[in-house]
Amino acid sequence: MSETVTDTQGQFRGWDDEGHRVIVGWVNRDGTEYLVGLSKCCQATGKGLMDEESGFGYVGCRACYHEVSPSLGGEARLALDAQGKPV
Q1: Does 86 reside within a domain?
Q2: Of 7, 36, 79, 85, which is least packed with CB atoms within 10 Å of its CB?
C-alpha cells in the first residue's frame, strides 16, 4: 500500500458514519477486504503521529499531517455503500 492511498484502482466501497470515503486498503489471504477511510483534506489514510513539542499523540493525515478523526487510524466500517444506501 502506498503512503497516500487514493481510489485509482476503482476500490471505492462507500462512506463511513463520519462521511469519509472508504476504499479497499488490501485484500487478506482469506479473500476478505480490509477497508480504510480517507481523510477529507487530502483523500489519504490516517496514521499515528506525535507532536514533538507537546509529546501528544494523534491520528494525522498521511499527506499533510493535519489531525484527523481517530476513526481513520484503523479499519473502516461502512455506513453507506457506493450507491449511498445504508449498510
Answers
A1: no
A2: 85
Is 34 part of a structural domain of the chain? yes
Q: pTM (2 decimals)?
A: 0.83
Is 63 a member of any domain?
yes
Number of domains within the chain:
1
Distance of CA 48 to the CA centre of its chain: 12
Express each pLDDT in 1-53 by its tens digit.
Answer: 344 445 456 689 999 999 999 999 998 999 899 999 999 999 999 999 999 99
pLDDT at 67: 97
The domain containing residue 36 runs over which residues? 12-81
User: Got the DSSP string for the chain?
Assistant: --SS--SSSS-EEEE-TTS-EEEEEEE-TTS-EEEEE--TTTS--EEEEE-TTT--EEEEETTT--B--GGGGS----SEETTS-B-
